[in-house]
């Protein structure tokens, strides 16, 4: 036999009443608007409203109207005017004038002075020095090439000209045309590609054709007093450092080298 169904002892709460109340405080206005909207809808279904009583718009119409007002206000509000940037003065200065125009060396107004290195320790530096020398030699003017690897005095001389200390990193090459500092490898390439480098070398004396027969184009020869050993012997004092040559036992070629600065 089937067991008779009994009444459940579980108490069911009224969910409709609880759903109508919002527990979150920010929904209190929405609750009131929805209640008014539901009341007006029930009145419309029951009977026609009195002509003298105006019908209140629903919540959706209110939201649409507020959005329309906000859009109209944002479109009519004038945008803040930004100040126009001041035009920068045009500069026709070359890269050499913008780099270090105040640096110059005395006694070199009629030639080009190039400080470089012939060592291949740093390949990029060696390639820059070789390309700059090749560009300048193409103009066939007088060039005073000063190799820092052949004579350490050139390094001290260049640091004094640029007003740098020994701890400061020095990049090579450095080019002076007519006694005025022009720049390094990048500046020389830019001037040469733009056709401006030719204007810098105009008026300089032409270089002598051929290679020097004494030094072979190196600019240095062995010292006559120490024969390149940088040491001299005397009976009284024994061995002493030669004062006529540099640390490598070399002296400037008297035939093709320019006078020291």
Automatic annotation (TrEMBL):
Q: Know the name of this protein? A: Glutaredoxin domain-containing protein
Q: List residues of the Glutaredoxin domain.
A: 113-182
List compositional bias (Polar residues) regions by residue number: 91-102
- Report the source organism: Escallonia herrerae
Q: Where is this region: Disordered?
A: 39-58, 73-105
Question: Highest taxon of the source?
Answer: Eukaryota
- Record's PANTHER family? GLUTAREDOXIN DOMAIN-CONTAINING CYSTEINE-RICH PROTEIN CG12206-RELATED, GLUTAREDOXIN DOMAIN-CONTAINING PROTEIN
């Amino acid at each position: 036999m089937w067991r008779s169904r009994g009444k459940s002892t579980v108490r069911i709460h009224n969910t409709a009443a609880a759903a109508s109340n919002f527990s979150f405080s920010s929904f209190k206005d929405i609750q009131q608007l929805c209640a008014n909207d539901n009341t007006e809808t029930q009145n419309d279904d029951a009977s026609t409203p009195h002509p003298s009583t105006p019908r209140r718009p629903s919540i959706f119409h209110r939201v649409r109207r507020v959005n329309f007002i906000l859009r109209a206000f944002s479109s009519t509000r004038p945008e803040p005017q930004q100040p126009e940037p001041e035009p920068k003065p045009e500069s026709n200065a070359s890269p050499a004038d913008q780099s270090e125009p105040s640096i110059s060396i005395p006694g070199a107004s009629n030639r080009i002075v190039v400080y470089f290195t012939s060592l291949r320790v740093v390949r990029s530096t060696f390639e820059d020095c070789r390309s700059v020398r090749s560009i300048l030699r193409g103009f066939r003017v007088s060039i005073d090439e000063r190799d820092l690897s052949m004579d350490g005095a050139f390094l001290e001389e260049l640091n004094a000209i640029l007003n740098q200390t020994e701890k400061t990193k020095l990049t090579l090459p450095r080019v002076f045309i007519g006694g005025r500092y022009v720049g390094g490898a990048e500046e020389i390439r830019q001037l040469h590609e733009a056709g401006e480098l030719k204007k810098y070398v105009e008026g300089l004396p032409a270089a002598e054709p051929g290679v020097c027969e004494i030094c072979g184009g190196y600019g240095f020869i062995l010292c006559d007093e120490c024969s390149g050993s940088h040491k001299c012997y005397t009976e009284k004092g024994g061995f002493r450092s030669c004062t006529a040559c540099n640390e490598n036992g070399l002296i400037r070629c008297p035939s093709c080298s320019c006078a020291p600065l």
